[in-house]
Amino acid sequence: MSTAGFETQDKFPSRITPYVVACWIFAAFGGLMFGYDIGISGGVTAMDDFLIRFFPAVHERKLLAKENNYCKYDDQNLQLFTSSLYLAALFASFAASKVCSIFGRKPTILVASVFFLSGAASSAAAENLWMLIVGRILLGFGVGFGNEAVPLFLSEIAPVEHRGAVNILFQFFVTIGIFIANLVNYGTSKLHPHGWRVSLGLAGVPAFVLFIGSLVISETPTSLIERGNEMAGKMTLKKIRGVDNVDAEFDQIKEASDKARLVQHPFKNLLKRSSVPPVVIAICLQVFQQFTGINAIMFYAPVLFQTVGFKDDASLLSAVITGIVNVASTVVSIYAVDKLGRRKLLLQACVQMLICQAAIGGILLAYLPTTGSLTKVQAIFVVVLVCLFVMSFAWSWGPLGWLIPSETFPQETRTAGFALAVSSNMLCTFIIAQAFLSMLCHMRAFIFFFFGLWIVVMGLFVVFLLPETKGVPIDLMEERVWKQHSVWKRFMD
Prior knowledge:
about 500 residues; mainly alpha; Growth Hormone, Chain: A
């Protein structure tokens, strides 16, 4: 049930200064790196030069005169190239939680950038499959550290009235990364025989910007105060707020930090009854975010468009179009999330995504046989439906899947709780990345109905179990949200 009637706007004095905006943007480059990794793999796996070198059996199937539309890319090693990154990120997120708590958000982002740089270099220089997988694993460590630290950093450094918009910068930069990756793939697909090396190696550019940014940004006041650096925390709070009158906000952070320091084992605290609401919501949002089917589309957009009848260049160009839609629609979320709230965006998107998944599945079921292709009009209609699907995801489940867990855990379990959210996301992303091409082969058009059923479950979850968190100070969630919710108040002391 909604708690919209209980929300409040606790505004502490603040000004948006050039420095704090620079901190937001530099940190958000962690999202751009994540998005580039998501977008680049699908285009690379569609390149013939890449397949000939690492997956010749897949290339042979692709060249068959009467190729199976749904099964030509079904190869576990090919899927492992994409999914290994997310398996590594799953395990790295728990180490990142410890680094985040002990050393702070800023050093964790620095570590992420070093992993990203190493992974980009290893991937671009790969001579065999194991070198390629090692590169993906290093990138996965970067994703684990970056996705743990960046959303927390953005939520903790943002003024309460702009917290939603600032946190969504992470997802906005993810969409920019995907879009850039699609553009790069479109260009490098013509660079024979090493276009794939350029695509993978260019990941080093945003990684280097993130490295420089990690040296420029401030540590969050919350992290400094929690680790006993109260004077530095207050000075940093003044710096990022652009005002000297920060006593009220400082006192609130200090009170939460004093409670957090009493907790010796934050992961054990997640087992407490009062931790059930944020834990359930954090995990469910990550599962639902992936089982909308979005990453099946974003990972394999070029492959998917080839499946419905586009040629190589046209399929890459179609992926570029979906990338543009993804970026533009995330801007809608930045504008709307602190005005309309989280629940309205999520519910509207469920309706739009369900219609799109059902329509895509219906078209493929009716008109795309095992061999042959859709007509040009039918294929274009599928691209339009994919764009409408990506549009609704980009202003809802994409950014809010990261925002809501970052703002709902109390400070004493925040890094541990968010690590649980990140690892859940990476596990589900790994499952989708490893299984999608095989699922497409065996389920064919019915795979879109499979994701549609998940969207129905998601909508019911939002209606009955997801409270509204718009305008609620991050350290007052228990009093203002959980204790006011018809279901979750039963878990509060």
